[in-house]
Amino acid sequence: MELYALTAHELSEKLIRREVSAREVTQSVLGRIASTEERVHAYVTVTESIALAQADAVDAARASGESVSPLAGIPIALKDNLCTTGIETTCSSKILRGFVPPYSATVVEKLEASGSVFIGKANLDEFAMGSSTENSAFGASHNPWDIGTVPGGSSGGSTAAVAAGEAIWAIGSDTGGSIRQPAAFCGVVGLKPTYGRVSRYGLIAFASSLDQIGPVTKDVRDAALLMNLISGHDSRDSTSIVRDVPDYTRALTGGVKGLKLGVPKEYFAQGVSPEVSASVRTAIDTLVSLGAIAEEISLPHSEYALPTYYILAPAEASSNLARYDGVRFGHRTARATNHVDLFEKSREEGFGPEVKQRIMIGTYALSAGYYDAFYLKAQKVRTLIKRDFDLAFEKYDAIIAPTAPTVAFKLGEVSDPLAMKLNDVLTIPANMAGIPAISLPCGFSDGLPIGLQLMAPNFGEETLFQIAYAYEQATRWHLGRAQL
Amino acid sequence: MTTTYEPIVGMECHAELLTESKMFCGCANAFGGAPNTRTCPVCLGLPGSLPTMNRRAVELVLRTALALHCEISLDCLFARKNYFYPDLPKGYQISQYDDPIGKSGYLDITLEDGRRKRIHIRRVHLEEDTGKLIHAGGNESEVDYNRSGVPLMEVVTEFPPDIESADEAKAYLEKLRSILIYLDVSDGKMEEGHLRAEPNLSIRPAGTSGVGVKTEIKNLNSFKSVYKGIEYELVRQSELLNAGEPVRQETLGWNDVSGETYHMRFKEEEQEYRYFPEPDLVPLHFETADIEAARADLPELPDAKRERFASQYGLREYDAGILTASRPLAAYFEEAAAGADPKAIANYVTGDLAKLLNASGQEITETKVTAAHLRELIMLRDGGKITNNSAKAVLAEMFETGEAPAVIVETRGLAAVSDDSAVAAEVDKALAASPEVVAKIKGGNEKSKGFLTGMVMKAMKGQARPDVVNRLIDERLAAL
Fold first, then answer.
1. Residues 12..71 of B with a Cβ closer than 8 Å to A: which?
2. Can you tell me the ipTM of this complex?
3. CB distance B388 to B381 below 8 Å
4. What number is the average pLDDT over the span A108-122?
5. According to the model, what pLDDT value does residue B476 have?
């Protein structure tokens, strides 16, 4: 197999044994980009020279016997909503075109410190608002399993890059499913950690109370390894939690005997395709055959998660996106005659239609006279959704469900914004509750991957890794590679 | 017929807090300097940056809320106040809305006639300051973000307001300022904008109750402008109502040169702030024990100190008030008064020393006259070593040179003449020179003795002790 097709833990072994150099791995990935990126369009920016310099530095350090991370030299794609010192960071928006941050996100610093090789900045739906990566101001990304379909979104660039071999692994962000849904569409593993587990400092905010950075990988072991690198408290993020980071690979025991899984009936209801339902049910059977116990449960407030999310997320976004005013950075209109004009025209020219729509919805939801009926009520419903999970986790170790209702759809096929948003109906509840959730491949329908979703209580990432790894060991879905 | 109106005034005051760093980042909280030299991704609102709470700022607001007798919210939220302006980098200001740190407090003011009045306070909260726009001429503006994110405390009076005149508003602001300085919460420098006041005012026919349609004057940075602004609005609103015109709810600016308010915007044009809880900060929680510790840690405040000075040192209320107007002055007095006559010290501190300070523009903390030297001076005088007149001259020299009073008395030869024979000789001369005065005294006019005393003192160049002079005059007169 080509180097670019390997996992990080496989490459790590080769790098440690000096069978390959970081430069060779990096060149393999860059070569893959050269041959497939035109079709996939996973990246906004490919940082070839930075990647090669980082790879050479790692090789030099290893050669001189310096102590380096076992994962040093692995090429990674960073979603382009993570600030990177000296590298243009666009959020796939015209309004940030040309913005070169003077600082890096905490996650980026951590990765840099462990010798990561930054291959490029991955495409996304503008400001992470979307479920197909079609909302990028710089063009849609494509699903490596079928170039005519979407990779999902908003971390579609990250998942497409990993699925295509254009990165060994990647970082995404998940506000309502933005890691898990594209991971499901692209047949890779994607984890949304517990809210507060990974620092948000330097992640360009969409909805602050929901955003969480997480790994996109080819298998569960890589996800555990990448979590080891990026997790932990950060004094620069007040919402990050002071709590020790375990070695997540210790959870990869292979056993699930006696673990109790809740199967929420609401997650198999209308809108979920029969093929997806069937694959997930088969996956549940596999876990039961390994010794897990599965029982049907109810999460009665699930149906309110989507409408509630579409009040709270736009409300926060309307405020978070107020700073893009043309004054200090990013796009500034050339047609302004006064400061109000400067704001209005810069924003009008800089933001795409989906972003504008959400700013409008959020502004409305926070306005005097509507606040109680929308924002406040949505917060109350959010508490109820959280309570559903709390009650379920009193009896169950994890909840198992599909990640997305369908497999990837054709580019341009879903034009109705509401239909597009329905893609996230099964992933949003975990964001609302703050709990960790993982998506991993569990089958195919018409040649397109299907995602299995596991959810656990707060800081239950180890439970997710344990179950996901046991399932992965018992199946072969994670070994498939998209043919391009 | 014209109606006489009286004002009802609410006060919203902002104080920049004396912290080392800004509210949500590590940049220095300082004044002046080249534009945009104290900025970072957080206070510039760069994408992806996040605020972290300055605990010291929270403590300072808690202290103030306790000193103003507020109820403390055990759990308080920060909120985003959303509006667009070039000096507001994030497009929202992090402030407090529903649960301010302190609410329902009060502050007592003392009016010129000695009357006390309680001014109720609605809320004390913490927020961040904005940057500053600099009009660069022509159609251009520049923005300086050095002030962006500086911790700002807002103190708002209760509604309906208790303040009913410009004098009361000024007294309120003076009292608030002195409390903030006492607490080391703010330096109170109004001219640098570290303490700013925004009075809002409506009027009603004198002697009635209720409130009218109010106008608000933005960003006043002196006691004088607060006083004049309120007086101006009282007249302007009265004239409107007397002419049968309505007062419109509006926000006004203040022109210090012309002494007039000017229109900024009407209420209908006000921004809709869309407050909502700040998701980037966790709610603030106080333990009851922390609050009690902060309460126990409060310094003695102006009112308590004034009352103590009056009773402990036997001072007049008025003098006690002057001496407790600032903590350094009160401390200076107490140090000087230890072991000396407090009233005599008070007279000097509020009298001769105050005059010297005023004339030179110095603060009590800057004077070369140490409290110990002042005490020494008073003891020299009260011990009869120097006369009262000499003491004033010695003080003037102490003020210039910082020399110890005993040294000045020695080198200037100002020691009081206590040698009776020298004084007696001058008394004899005075009696001999003024037989008609002696006759008057003999005739029962005791007051005329002062004339003789004056003559002797003059002849002795002020260095004779008045009590010795008076005793010798009495003895000589009795012997005649």
1. 41, 44-53
2. 0.95
3. yes
4. 98
5. 83
Mutation choice for B interface testing from A78, A100, A238, A370 by most B CBs within 10 A: A238
Type of residue at A440: L
Q: Do B50 and A201 touch (CB under 8 A)?
A: yes
Structural domains present in chain A: 3-255 (3.90.1300.10)
d(CA A233, CA A247): 15
CA A386 – CA A430 distance, rounded (Å): 8
Secondary structure letter of residue B35 according to DSSP: T
Where helices occur in B137-197 by DSSP H, the ranges are: 166-182
Contact across the interface for B49 and A208, Cβ inside 8 Å = no
Mean pLDDT within B171-185: 94
Structure confidence by residue, pLDDT tens digits, B290-328 = 999 999 999 999 889 999 999 999 998 888 988 998 889
β B92-95/B102-110 pair status: unpaired
b/e sequence A172-188, b meaning 16+ C-beta within 10 Å: bbbbbbbbbbbbbbbbb
- Virtual torsion, Cα B357, B361, B364, B367, nearest 10 deg: -80
Longest dimension (CA), chain B: 100
| Catalytically annotated residues of A | 79, 154, 178
Sign of CA dihedral A128, A131, A134, A140: positive
Residue B453 CB burial class (10 angstroms; 0-12, 13-18, ≥19): middle
Domains and CATH numbers, chain B: 5-291 (no CATH), 300-412 (no CATH), 420-479 (1.10.10.410)
Q: What gap in Å lies between CA A300 and CA A441, rounded to an integer?
A: 27
Q: How far is CA A222 from CA A76, A219, A296, B157, in A?
A: 12, 6, 31, 59
**What is the structure's pLDDT at A324?**
98
Neighbours of B439 (CB within 10 A): 11
Flag whether residue B86 sits within 8 Å of chain A, measured between CB atoms. Answer: yes
Distance set, CA A412 to CA A141, A144, A444, B130 (Å)? 12, 16, 22, 44
Distance CA B336, CA B376 (A): 9
Locate the chain A residue with the closest alpha carbon to B276: A366
CA-to-CA dists, residue B234 to A180, A218, B246, angstroms: 64, 74, 14
Closest CA–CA distance from residue B110 to any residue of chain A (Å): 40
Residues of B with Cβ-Cβ distance to A319 under 8 angstroms: 80, 82, 91-92, 274, 276
Judged by a CB distance cut-off of 8 A, whether residue B131 touches chain A is no
pTM for the structure as a whole: 0.89
Question: Is it the case that residue B467 has pLDDT exceeding 80?
Answer: no
The rounded distance, in Å, linking the Cα atoms of B188 and A163 is 62
Q: What would the mean pLDDT of B218-240 be, rounded to a whole number?
A: 94
A376-380, B115-119, B461-465: segment of lowest average pLDDT: B461-465
Query: What is the torsion angle, in degrees rounded to the nearest 10, for the CA atoms of residue B220, residue B225, residue B230 and residue B235?
Result: -130
Cβ contact B86–A208 (<8 Å): no
Q: Does B282 touch chain A (CB under 8 A)?
A: yes
Q: From residue A292, how far is each of A24, A53, A67, A287 by CA, in Å?
A: 42, 47, 41, 6
**CB-based contact B149:B22 (threshold 8 Å):** yes
pLDDT tens, position by position, A158-183: 999 999 999 999 999 999 999 999 99
User: In whole numbers, what is the pLDDT of chain B averaged over residues?
Assistant: 90
**Cβ atoms of A439 and A449 closer than 8 Å:** no
pLDDT higher than threshold 70 for residue B78: yes
Q: Tell me how close the Cα of B18 comes to any Cα of chain A, in angstroms.
A: 22
Mutate to test the interface with A, among B78, B274, B281 (most CBs of A within 10 A): B274
- How many residue pairs bridge chain A and chain B with CB atoms within 8 Å of each other? 105
